[in-house]
Amino acid sequence: RLVGALDAVLDSNARVAPFRILLQVPGSQVYSPIACGELLSGSDVYWAIATGATLEEINQHWDWLEQNLLHTLSVFDNKDDVASFVKGKVKALIAEETSSRLAEQEEEPEKFREALVKFEARFNFPEAEKLVTYYSCCCWKGKVPRQGWLYLSINHLCFYSFFLGKELKLIVPWVDIQKLERTSNVFLTDTIRITTQNKERDFSMFLNLDEVFKIMEQLADVTLRRLLDNEVFDLDPDLQEPSQITKRDLEARAQNEFFRAFFRLPRQEKLHAVVECSLWTPFSRCHTAGRMFTSDRYICFASKEDGCCNVILPLREVVSIEKMEDTSLLPNPIIVSIRSKMAFQFIELKDRDNLVESLLVRLKRVHANHPVRYDTSRDEDMTSPVFHSASMCGDHKFGDLEMVSSQNIEESEKDKSPCLHPEALISVFQQSGSQSPDSRVSREQIKISLWNDHFVEYGRTVCMFRTEKIRKLVAMGIPESLRGKLWLLFSDAVTDLASHPGYYGNLVEESMGKCCLVTEEIERDLHRSLPEHPAFQNETGIAALRRVLTAYAHRNPKIGYCQSMNILTSVLLLYAKEEEAFWLLVAVCERMLPDYFNHRVIGAQVDQSVFEELIKEHLPELAEHMNDLSALASISLSWFLTLFLSIMPLESAVSVVDCFFYDGIKAIFQLGLAVLEANAEGLCSSKDDGQALMVLSRFLDHIKNEDSPGPSVGSHHAFFSDDQEPYPVTDIADLIRDSYEKFGDQSVEQIEHLRCKHRIRVLQGHEDTTKQNVLRVVTPEVSILPEDLEELYDLFKREHMMSCYWEQPRPVALRHDPSRPYAEQYRIDARQFTHLFQLVSPWTCGAHTEILAERTFRLLDENMDHLIEFKAFVSCLDVMYNGEMNEKIKMLYRLHIPPALTENDRDSQSPLKNPLLSTSRPLVFGKPNGDAVDYQRQLKQMMKDLAKEKDKTEKELPKMSQREFIQFCKTLYSMFHEDPEENDLYQAIATVTTLLLQIGEVGQRSSSSGSCSQEGGEELRASALSPEQDLVFADTNTEKIPQDSRTFPEEVEGDWTVSLEHILASLLTEQSLVNFFEKPLDIKSKLENAKINQYSLKTLEMSRQSQPDLKLNNV
């Protein structure tokens, strides 16, 4: 309450702007400030047309009013009409300004427009920084709350407060956030904590904290994945253009992701509607309340009671969607009929007519794109849980939907398709188990009987009712004869299989025989895939495995082939036909284990991080004992990547795969927790990671499947089990049952929330690894302190990011590419380099700085790809700050010869107003004390010394022409500007320039007798300054120089040259110049200023770019 009261009194909204333009309406006696045309509550006569924080700003507003508004007011007869016109004009301007930003999509457009104006005024971002939403809240600084406004934009989290006369602004880029979590402190039970590299900030007192946190979570997730994980991340179409993202888009994305994760549907599937309804469930003889989800190609249902009943209806299986008569018992019902002669009755549907209409449109589209095909060659019996009906053969029509028989099509394609293995490998390479044949058959038959009974009551197709009963049947273990078919149904790979006839065969034809890095990796791993199983001890199984893996790599080059895919595919081939195994692999890699199989296995790392948190929550004693859970996570990584297939006997591991195909990743999480709980005592007593690994490996290797009809097939860790005493055996069915009973309470929504939370940490962990590796390589090669190097890296990365935020991607400015080597992941182009150069380089040359930066970039861009990496950037700065004088002069020299200096250099043709460099001065000067310095003798001796010290192996730099030399002099002159020893430096450089010009002329005369160069020299001498004049440049304000007079005469070029040794020796003759280049430079102050000004410099540049457009619009 205290904070709220202070907010009401001291909130920045209540402050009066220092400058205002007010309109007095007839009848009013005073003026009252009203923000940007908004009417003050309770008053209708006082208007503030414009407000400004500075006199310059309010004058700009007045100028605009004079040009666009004031001259039109004279046409009105009375002041009331004037006031009405101005009011309407101001409101129209506000509406026009914000309409392009989609403000009308917000729930309260007027308030959003007002917040948008304040956001822009307070933070001065470029127009491309789209405000998404805003909230009133408190930001805690220690124990003190600061009441203000939280602004969430597409790239930043911003907070503004004006409290007790103090203004506070916080700007936190989403890409800098390392943790985003809900927490509590001593004063408040629920806050949102934002953690960056060096700070934690708590925000509280939201009206709806759940909504705020979800929006922040979505924004952080979208932005981090868009900017840091673009290797595999594909944005939803609605989010492709960041500047168009709205709060509604983010809420829709969250709902869409939950929908796809819950029903494990393809990433391309877009949710269209979520409708409350009830579904008739014949097994319970009642209607079950829940929600209907409709998307591009699916109708799905989920009961409100978790696990009670779920249904997935692919539209390609739907025959008709019809409205029934509305009654009191069956309000607003519809019937959805599917091909296997089942019908689903939904009631209590709101807006039923529009829903049915949209469903029929999508139904027609699906069947038009993928005509339904029937496989009439299959035997239909109760042991085959496929969705075909024996009575459906040939060509059929249901309503307007044409059903095309696959029998005729397959005959025509038979000759074209490659030779694929026609059945599951286990049916060919079936082993006899240790049990008696009668015992094996009876166990299998009992399971088959139970499943057949279930099919009769709940359905036998992909459209079956999925209830707790089927989960129990899956946990008991699927019969081997049904395993492959049920995997297809549970994963919905059967829909992909039916929708893409001939697709796999074509892929095999296209991919086989091609040799590349991926196929080499596949060949290397083929014989490591279940080598103990007879199916992969001969060419039949190996060839099928090769075809599936190669075809998938051809289908999805982003993933290609990753280790562990071979083990998974081997098991799929055992229980499914070759083409079915391919589509099961597609379902696992692209839907059920997203981002697992790629360059950085981000998805697997995220789930490992989630697994660590679940361990802390469910097994706190184990978590407390294992101080570093990351070691345990490294052991469990293979559990997730191979679904326990690589570390558990095969006959037991396939039961885990059964649960995975039905329940998704949840099954692996809970089984992992059950394994750890069963070994908690041994793990707590283990002394190191190696002993912990031994405990888990022995346990997992002794998990048996008592119901398996086949013999035991050992795991890859069998060598750990050489015990003197027999190790106790655990039955897989018992372990799975325990996992469901003890750890089965995790919902899909909770897991997805944890994944989102930990994805931020994992991506930032990769960023930290990249940073540390780059710094580790660069640090030994430069003299800059490690802490300063770290600051420079952050500036370098932020400069790259700012271009990603606000600039249209240019062809050369590539986005962050995590697949590249660490040093090359962040690179900047010439414009970005120029910004950084202006911020951190000690060689500031006023208006000439930008030109010098461009030349420096060209020098560093050795491979001419118009991009440089951090190492080159830092090496350049290291010379400027810590190099010896000769290194600095050498760099300056190289900046004024090709390739740094080009013919098209925008300043190379305008070095001086007139060629005013003097070559007529004597080489002996008299000093005030009467001593004379013979520069000629001194220079000759220094040239000899330099020649002796010169490294013979060093590549000699080309000599500098007169045009290049004049540019070199101009740079030096610009660098001396505003230096405390400015006059001495100008005197010294004038002397040195004279020496070098004479040296160049001597060389010119000796090397060439041409008249052109000599005429150029005469021109120089004719226009030279008198010997008494010390300034090198007559007019330093090059902006005032006429364009025609800037062109240097071509004939001066000639053969006039000087070398680096000439220049260095000449500069060493002047102590003031030596002092200038050898004085210590402080990079820390530059870094501090750069952190403060980096954003403002970028904003200023972008505003300059937009000014021509604004002027054009005004005209």
TrEMBL record:
Compositional bias annotation for Low complexity: 1004-1015
GO MF entries: calcium ion binding; GTPase activator activity
Keyword Repeat: yes
InterPro entries for this protein: EF-hand-dom_pair (IPR011992), EF_hand_dom (IPR002048), GRAM (IPR004182), PH-like_dom_sf (IPR011993), Rab-GAP-TBC_dom (IPR000195), Rab-GAP_TBC_sf (IPR035969), TBC1D8_PH-GRAM1 (IPR036009), TBC1D8_PH-GRAM2 (IPR036016)
Positions of the Rab-GAP TBC domain: 477-664
Region Disordered, annotated ranges: 1004-1024
Example GO biological process: system process
Entry coiled-coil feature ranges: 932-963
PROSITE patterns: EF_HAND_2 (PS50222), TBC_RABGAP (PS50086)
Pfam families for this protein: GRAM, RabGAP-TBC
Signal peptide: none
Residues annotated as domain EF-hand: 848-883
Keywords: Coiled coil, GTPase activation, Repeat
Presence of the UniProt keyword Repeat in the record: yes
PANTHER family given in the database record: PROTEIN VASCULAR ASSOCIATED DEATH 1, CHLOROPLASTIC, TBC1 DOMAIN FAMILY MEMBER 8 ISOFORM X1
Function field: May act as a GTPase-activating protein for Rab family protein(s).
Name this polypeptide is given: TBC1 domain family member 8
Source organism phylogeny: Eukaryota, Metazoa, Chordata, Craniata, Vertebrata
